[in-house]
Amino acid sequence: GWFKYDRAPCSTILQGVWRDPGPALNYGESVRLSVPGAEFNCYSSIEALYCTGPQNYGFKLSRTEFIRSPLS
């Protein structure tokens, strides 16, 4: 959807600035997120943030890369 914020969503998400960023996921912690029709499990490590969703699809987000693929 369209956002009506004081900063563009894409640039602020990548820079880590958001109107209400909420709690941080510390290294070694995990969280389960539910969205309509799917659940995601995310784990934070020193290397990256890993999230998996339905059918083992997910992503890896680090300081240097974003990879979206089937994860094992």
The H/E string reads HEEEEE
The backbone outline, from C-alpha atoms, is globular
What is the radius of gyration computed over CA atoms, rounded to a whole number of angstroms?
13 Å
Strand content: 35-45%
Q: Roughly how much helix do the residues carry, as a percent range?
A: under 10%
Q: Report the mean per-residue pLDDT as an integer.
A: 76
Main β-sheet, spatial strand arrangement:
1-2-3-4-5
- How far apart lie the N and C ends? 31 Å
What are the low-pLDDT stretches, counting only 5+ consecutive residues below 50? none
What's the total number of strands? Answer: 5
What secondary-structure arrangement, pairings included, does this model have?
Blueprint: H1 9-15, E1 30-35, E2 38-44, E3 49-52, E4 57-61, E5 66-70
Antiparallel strand pairs: 1-2, 2-3, 3-4, 4-5
